[in-house]
Records
---
Amino acid sequence: MIFFKQNTQQQKESDSNEQNESQSSGLRSRLKKTRRALGSIFGTGSKLDDNLVDDLEDHLIMADMGIDAVDQIMSELRPQVKSGKVKSVDELIQFVTNKISQQLEISEQKLVVEQSPFVLLLVGVNGVGKTTTAARLAHYYQSLGKSVMLAACDTFRAAAIEQLQSWGKKLDIPVVAQQHGSDAAAVAHDAYESAKAKNIDLLIIDTAGRQHTHSSLMEQLAKVNRVLQKLNPQLPHESIIVLDAGNGQNALSQVAHFNEMIPLSGMIVTKLDGTAKGGVVVALAKKYQLPVRFIGVGEAMQDLRLFEAKEFAQALLPQNLAESE
């Protein structure tokens, strides 16, 4: 029996390793546009010299990794190359990958749903995928055994209300909504009271997309926040900004403006599969040091994934010269 238990444990560990490798491989596939852009400087006959290092710096910046993050990496890389401690292209790639991973580690923090009802407020500009993200978050926490409720506080678009209600039916999740044009803060109020009465674990509030430069709409968002805090000073437990990776450096200004109106506690970066600007996640982590709660890498429910720094860094760059050819 002892041998049987050991073999069973070994099989579980093997299955887990295979699953992790599969997920990592899947992420690499989804981030191929960024990786191809960064890996385009490497090829047959590539040699480690100052020109290659300069090209790498340019490509990291073009991938929207941000000047601060790139400067830190290059300031550490150049002395290593000059001294011969980094002596091949493959070693250069591994060095940069490790440095990116280190910069991202501060943003690798899983979101733990503890209080009941736990209130998660989603904010962001138009078109970043907030409503779909709300549904995917609901699906994810459902899979963990949590009861979930959705609040349709995007009352400016009738289609947004209908979209969230449609997701609610598909996922068998209650959705609190009012008519188009209703007071979003009132919807949030009713949703919280309903979630509390029904002992719901997680309430996800989907807010209207608004440009961060539109002061009146931003004030309406602040009203939602104030109403929630009157119900419970701890609310919302989590305020997450949803960002489209394709917006590149503009995503940084979005975080700054929304954080002035509502203190943000995390980020979700979506649409990473459709852009060569995946480096923006590094820029965001470097500048704001906020947790990246999830990343979006496709259209399916399971394409909203927990963010893992090392896995993400390894998916951004070809991991050796042979892979880039």
---
Amino acid sequence: MKAITWLASVTLGVAALTASAFATTPEGWTTDLNKAFEQAKAENKSVLVEFTGSDWCPPCIAMRKNVFSKKEFVDAASKKFVLVEIDFPKGDPAVKAKNDPLAEKYKIEGFPTVLLLTPAGKEFSRFYASEYPKIDDFLKHLDEALVPKKAE
């Protein structure tokens, strides 16, 4: 019985540490899509929106840990995009409820979904972030997604 109690306390402790580590938006990201559109217009950038389940979705957690929270990614992606995180955490029902209308508006069917939008809000690309689990691959995909947009 002691072993089960110990294992349960360790598991809960690790879960609490993991959840708290991902409880805040990564550096260089915003959670306000309207302000992101304003910034994108002012800076002549596109908008990258990640729809995530930061405290329950394993691919979302991995993407944040390995790509989205890394300075190398944020610095490179921020040159062409305003970065927005729209979170649906199980641990914070108020945040999820606030973001539910955006998931409906953009017809989000899974996580982590990334939308690339013009400053006016027109979608020009959509993909699952976990398709590009490394910084270099993700940045390359972003550059490729911008090529057809520039031709418009």
